[in-house]
Amino acid sequence: MAKKKAAKVYINGRLIGFHEQPEKLTQELVKSRRSNKIASQVNIAFHEDTNELYINTDAGRVQRPLLVVENGKPKITEEQLKKLTEEKMGWEDLIKEGFIEYLDPEEEENAFIAIDENELTKEHTHMEINPIAILSLISSMIPYIQHDMAGKALHGAKMFKQSLGINGINFNLRTDTEGYLLHYPQKALVKTRTMNLLELDERPQTQNLVVAIVPYRIFNTLDALVINQGAVDRGMGRSTYYRTYEGIEQRYPGGQADRFEIPNEETVGYLGEKVYTKIGDDGIVNLETTLEEKDIIIGRTSPPRFLEEISEFGVVKEKRRDSSLSTRKGKPGHVDKIMLTESEDGNKLAKIKVRSTMIPEVGDKFSSKHGQKGVVGAIVPEADMPFTVDGVKPDLIINPHSIPSRMTMGHLLEMLGGKVSSMKGFDIDGTPFNSMTKEDLGDLLKNKGLRHDGKETFYDGVTGERIEGQVFVGVIAYRRLFHMVAHKMQARARGPVQILTRQPTEGKEKEGGLRFGEMEGETLVGHGAAMLLQEKFIEDSDRVVELVCEKCGIIGIHDQIRNRRYCPLCDSSRVYPVEMSYGFKLMLDELKALGIFPKIVIGDKA
543-549 and 190-191 as β-strands: parallel, antiparallel, unpaired? Predict the structure, then answer.
C-alpha cells in the first residue's frame, strides 16, 4: 500500500509546512481551543479531498456560536444550565469551558449540525443553540420564514430598506436630500423575537391590511394589486415625501459674488415677471407656498462668466446672469422649512425643504415581508369591493397565482396569524423555528366561530352574487415601498440633444429619451420591421442629411454665403444629399482624425 502524502498546512492562506497526520493534528487543535489553550476565534478545517489543513485566525470572518456535541449528546449538562439560570455562569464561561464554540463557513463545511436534541445521533458534531441563529438580523424579522422559498425570503429581506416608516424621530429638523415619512405606521400583529430585540415597534414601517387572495376583474393579473378606495381615504399607505434644495451665494476671485434677489429685466436669461412671483424680496420663497414643478424657489443672480467690454462712455456695466434654483421635474409640493445659515467658507447658504403628500395611486408599489411585491393595478370604490357575510371588505386583493410558484407559505401563515391576533387581541409569535403552529392558529380561529383554514364565503361587491368557492382572507403586515409612479413617470416627444452626438439626452431630469439599444434593434431586425428600425434609429434619434461627393466619397460642404456646394478634397460640384445618422457622420470624422480615409460609395436608387 502506497504511503499517504503529507497534508499541506496553511495559516491564513499561507503555506507553512506539511504534516503526516492531519486528522490527528486537527483533533488536537480543536481540543486545545475547547480547553482554552488557543484563542476561541481560531478556526481549523481539514479538507480530506484535497488533503489540506486550513487554520484561520484573520479578522472579518463570519462566525456563529454552536453547542458542542460529543457521543450524540450536547456537552453542556443540566448542571451548567442551572448555573446559567442562577447567573453563576455567563456566556464567556461557556466558551472558555468548551461548551460553545464559534465556527466560520470553512470549518462549518466539516461539521454535522442538528437543529434540536430530538435530531441528535452519534455522527453529529454540533447542535444549534436556537435555529434562529442560522438567519441574519433582517431575515429573522420575517415571520414564518422557515416555510418560505430561500430566494423569495431574500427578496423580502432586501425590501426592508425600501419601505416607508419613520426614518428618525427628528425628521422635521433634518435636511436630508430626500426623505419619506409614513403617516400612520402600525406595529405588526405577527412578531418575531428579533423585532422585539430591535424595538421595531418603536419605529414601525408597516400597516396591517385585510388581504384577500382572489382574482378581481383582471385588475390584479400577475403581480398587480387591487386596493380599496375607502382604505386609501382612511389613510392607508399615505406618506410625505421631503426634498431639500440648497442654494449658496458663491464668492468669486476679483471680489464678485452671487446674490439672492429677484432678477431684474436686464439680467441675462431673465425668465419674465410671472416666473418670479412666488419668491420674496430676499430672493427666497415664502413658507407654505404651493409649488408646481419647475417653479423658482431661490432667485439668484451671478456675475458674468467673462469680463465685459468697456462701453462707449468708458464705464464697465456689469451684466449679471440668472442662476435661480427651481424645483425638480415631477416633484411639486409645499415649502415645509427654510434654513438660512453660512457655509464653511462663510458664504450665505439657504436650504429649502419641500413637502409633498403622496397618496397611493395606480402604479405605486406595495410588498409583504415574504417578497410578494406588487404594483397597484386599480383603486376600486369601497362599494364595489367583495365582502364577507359579516360585511368585511378587504383593503387589498392579491392574485392566487402569486402563491404556489413562489412557495411563500410563510405569507399564508402570517395572514392566518394576523387574523387570529385581530380576533383575539394578542400578538402572535412568528419567530422562525419557534413559531405558533398552523394547528394552534386554526384552533383559535375555530373558537371564534371562523373556519380553521382562514377561508370565508365572499359576495361580489358589484353584482351582489356569491363568489363560487371559498376565498382565503387574513390580516398581514404590508409595506409601502418608495418606488412611486409620480417620481418615475417620464414622456418625451421632442427635446434637448447632446452636443457631440446630437442624440437625445439621457435621464428623466434632462428630459431624455429611452435608450433603444443594440439588443432592441436586433429584435426589430428579427421581425423584419425595417420601417420601425429606420424610425427608432434614425428619425427619433439623430437623423441628418449630409452632402456626399460622388467621386471621393467624403462629406461635402454647403457654403451658404456663396450658395455653393462642393467637395473639400477635389472641389467637384457633384455632391448629393444623403440621409444618415449623425453618429455615423461623427465616426467618419473620427476616422479622418486617425488618418484613415473613409469613402462612401453612392449611386442612383434602383
Answer: unpaired
Q: Any catalytic annotation for residue 483?
A: yes
User: Distance of CA 515 to CAs 355, 492, 531, 538, Å?
Assistant: 32, 12, 18, 13
CA distance 187 to 207: 7
Encoded amino acid at 395, one letter: D
Give the C-alpha separation, 302 to 258, whole Å: 4
458 by DSSP, 3-state: which? strand
Cα separation, 52 vs 323, in Å, equals 67
Q: How confident is the model at residue 149 (pLDDT cuts 50, 70, 90)?
A: very high
Q: What percent of the chain has pLDDT over 70?
A: 97
- Answer yes or no: do 395 and 528 share one domain: no
Q: What is the DSSP letter of 250?
A: -
Phi, psi of 292 (to 5 degrees): -95, 170
Q: Exactly one of 19, 183, 329, 351 is catalytic; which is it?
A: 351
Domain holding 109: CATH number?
3.90.1070.20
CB of 491 within 8 A of CB of 508? Answer: no
Residue with cell 395606480: 362
251 and 345 Cβ atoms separated by less than 8 Å: yes
Judgement on whether residues 119 and 53 belong to the same structural domain of the protein = yes
Residue with cell 461635402: 556
Q: Return the pLDDT at 178.
A: 93
Is 97's pLDDT higher than 90?
no
If one counts the domains in the chain, the total is 4
**The predicted structure's pLDDT at residue 315:** 61
| 377 SS3 class | strand
Domain with 526 in it: what CATH number? Answer: 3.90.1800.10
Element (H, E) at 30: helix 22-34
Question: Does 5 have pLDDT greater than 90?
Answer: no
Report whether 221 contacts 373 (CB < 8 A).
no
| The C-alpha cell that represents 44 in the structure block | 481549523
Task: Dump pLDDT digits (tens) for 389-419.
Answer: 999 999 999 999 999 999 999 999 999 999 9
Which position has the higher pLDDT, 496 or 319? Answer: 496
Q: 379: domain range?
A: 153-237+362-480
pLDDT for the residue 106: 92
Contact predicate 156/174, CB 8 Å: no
Average pLDDT over residues 564-569: 92
- pLDDT tens for residues 332-376? 999 999 999 999 989 999 999 999 999 999 999 999 999 999 999
Q: Which amino acid is at 409?
A: M
Q: What percentage of residues in the chain have a pLDDT greater than 90?
A: 76
Task: Establish if 486 belongs to a structural domain.
Answer: no
Q: Active-site residue among 8, 334, 401, 483?
A: 483
Strand residues in 224-326 grouped as ranges (E)? 225-228, 239-248, 259-260, 290-291, 296-298, 300-302, 321-322, 325-326
Q: Are residues 386 and 476 in the same domain?
A: yes
Residue 125 and residue 12 share a domain: yes
Round to whole Å and give the CA distance between 182 and 164: 6
Can you give the three-state secondary structure of 393-411, one letter per residue?
CCCEEECHHHCCCCCCHHH
The C-alpha angle with vertex 27 and arms to 23 and 30, in degrees rounded to 5, equals 135
